[in-house]
Amino acid sequence: MKVTEEILLYGAGGHARVVAECLHCQERRIVAVFDDNPEVKRFGKMDVHHQYQRDLFAEHAILIGVGDNRLRRQLASRVYHPFADAARHRSAVISCRAEVGKGSMVMHQSTIQTGAFLGQHVIVNTGAIVDHDCELEDFVHVGPGAVLCGNVSVGEGTLIGAGATVAPGVRIGFWAKIGAGAVVVRDIPDGVVVTGVPGRVIRKLETL
Fold first, then answer.
1. Cis geometry, peptide bond prior to residue 38 (ω within 30 degrees of 0)
2. Fewer CB atoms inside 10 Å of the end CB: C or N, the chain?
3. What are the binding residues?
4. What domain count does the chain have?
């Protein structure tokens, strides 16, 4: 494989393995892996570093390979390495008129349409669709098979569950959770959990 970039990865779990496949598709090689869990010893053929080391490959960029939005934000706030350009699987479709921020991840067979904007550290998971002119703020996670129709806005840290659908023009607040399979047809406030068809707020989260 021709290597175009060497990169660091924070995280050694299942999500990180998916990210690693995306990086491989881009001919980007992982040279070091960090994970705070001391029980995780190996990542493929690589040893895992259990403490983040700011001086290790200091000039290299890093990706936060963690699916949990809050943990991804925590880790991003404490690393000193620059954030890498987005990881993208070769089967993903990204419009040339879409913008995808640093540290983001666009997974297998997902689609990002024209005019869409993704902030930093956003995940568009397997088979998800982000349609035209959507705006996703930092640390959003669009779960596998979820569909955001045109002109949807999603606030920082919100999770769109697997298979959920968000109708055109809907605005979703910060750090909300949209349950798997929900159909969201009206605006959603900050920090709530939404489930069902049509989607309804079932509770408010304790912390944002």
1. no
2. N
3. 67, 141
4. 2
